[in-house]
Amino acid sequence: MADIKSIIGTQNKKGQTYTDTWKMMNEAPRTPSFYTGSEVIKEAIRRASCDVMIAYPITPQSEAAALIGELFAEGYIGDYFRGESEFAVMSQCAGAAFGGARVFTTTAGPGTMRAMENFPMWAGARLPIQMIVTCRGINSPLSIQPDTLEIAYLLSTGMLVWHAETAQDFFDWILKGYMVSEEPDVHLPLALCCDGFFVTHTKDVVNLTPADMCLPPYDPYRSPVPCMDMECPPVRMMRDPFVMKSNYISYATHASWQQEIWAAIERSRKHSIHWLNGLIDTENTDADIMIVASGTAVSQGREAIRLLEDEGVRCGLVKVKTLRPWPEEEIREATKNAKHIFVPEFNVTGWLAKEIKATIPNHERVHAGPHVCGGMTMPPEIIVSEIKTTLGMKSFSLAGRGS
Amino acid sequence: MSKERIQISEDLYDIMPSDYQDLVKSATYGKEDRGWKDIGSSKELIEQHSLCAGCPESMAFRYILASLPNPEDTVMVGSTGCTSLVFPMVAVHNIHSLFGNQNAIASGLKRALSVRFPDRVKDVVVLAGDGATVDIGLDMTLQAWFRQEKFTTICFDNELYANTGGQESGLMQKGFVAKMAPVGKLFDKVRLPEIARESGCHYVVNCTVSKPSLVEKVIRNAVHIAREIGPTYLQLYTPCILEIGKNSMEGLQEMRDSEKPTERFAYKEYVSEPAKQLLAELAAKDKERKAAAKQLAGQASA
User: Fold this and answer.
1) For the structural domain made of A4-222, what CATH number should be given?
2) Which listed residue, A155, A165, A251, B201, has the most CB atoms within 10 A of its CB?
3) Pick from A51, A54, A91: which is nearest to B98 by CB?
4) Do the Cβ atoms of A51 and B48 come within 8 Å?
5) Contact residues for A77 (Cβ-Cβ < 8 A; gap 6+)
């Protein structure tokens, strides 16, 4: 069994030093770099001590998946290959994780949907795979544009689901994500989502940790379930498989295992708070008007707040970082003074607004919108307009600009 | 895994389940010439099963587990179906995840084990039914072969979906009347052994499990070739006696009838050139080992 503490300070075959993750993320010097989101994913994985990455092309994650192939060619990753479909890729990821590897993959939109059967299986099998989801439209007719509807489907899989706003979030959370999902009392897969194109294809200044430091390797023997490598005694798991029994014990077993998955998500809360410095970020929580958002809608909300400030309207902000675990208490506390809560979203159904409505008292305060979808951008002006219209203030109508 | 790993602390011995005690005392982990003849004289790696009485699949399971050349470092991958009712009682690490993704799971697993244990042998063996292998999982079956993934794929071919109650499958014979084939199956049995050869498998066998010695031979060959060269495929007839209207004691005869030279499970084998060379080397080593053992025995008696 690997002793992680004794590995800290030693070097891997690329000459990177296995570094205590807290020190690496919080104390090591950072270098500002101007990168696209895809390049940032590559730089994070360079430092992540990944054993296996499995790739499949789908816009807008193809570039990131291919760049990680370059890392493999350079020797930073144990193994890498292109699978035949997202369903197969997610199963290949599962196989690698069952075999005790630290696994990474990326997908988007229709790929997420095609692979969906795998995700509750990952969670149920306690596989701490990390999957980047660069959200895009899943509707017909075919769309490759940004749209976050697929996240709604991930929320009930038993995976941890985080929603990054910026490339900087991405860089930090990929590395911190492994620390949370590999905790023995969590040991669950992580869907690390971002808004495709907006984050993946735009350049931003990102502060990178030193390239000669990397995460300590994954220790599969800290898993709460046996690693399938024949390095621990194989025992008969059960007298009769529960699948063929229709009796109370069988139902109770399945029920308790599902409850355990959701309890593990709850237990991830403390680790996520520790690593992400809280499940939400807030500004001006004493304001009457709050914007609650996740992903790039947070950035647009921040701009809207600035615009409103110019007009003398004070507005606060909640940035939701983790969707699973869901920051119920935090959101309740942050919105307790708000008379109006606006939830701008890049999807047609408004899943975040629904979650918030189910969380806070007096949920008539929640205004589900503005919504854009199908690749539409969300100019801060439409958030401003939505807020002003609700407050009964005169507002420019973007659609009526020509009249 | 070394054999020491399964030893029981003396203080805890009496509270361990008897099947585990037996496993430690008399299983054949690590025995170089293990095979079907150990059945009856040593602890089998299958504890029990909940298959139907007389199910040929249960025979196949016992022969295969007795014949794996390296069970102490073998991980098996199953799929949904009757096989998934047996795997929880098998003393080899095994994975069930979804229906049909077994060769994708095995691809990731084999690569992870190769990354983690670069200097050790870790065999991966897939064992799934014909629905999983040929219908829902065909894509992943073939793609693993195209990629030359180094593991063995075993298909228990019972020519229908047994576990869900006897529906038509791609490996069913043409004309057979079954659930979901109400007027008889309209197309031929899929010729997967030939497809396997064309897809890059280095060793392909189509046979029944009526003869344990034959099962032992093809399993050992398939695992050794997969370990050293590339993908291997075994298609084994394990008739579902329930769904073809046979009694418990009639499974063996059904297999014997189906393996006659003109029948669909007549023994067929394909071995690639590199695989032939490997088998010749293994046979030579085996001969050497036996001669040495004989010499040693001669010295001891002299």
Assistant:
1) 3.40.50.970
2) B201
3) A91
4) no
5) A45, A50, A51, A52, A53, A68, A71
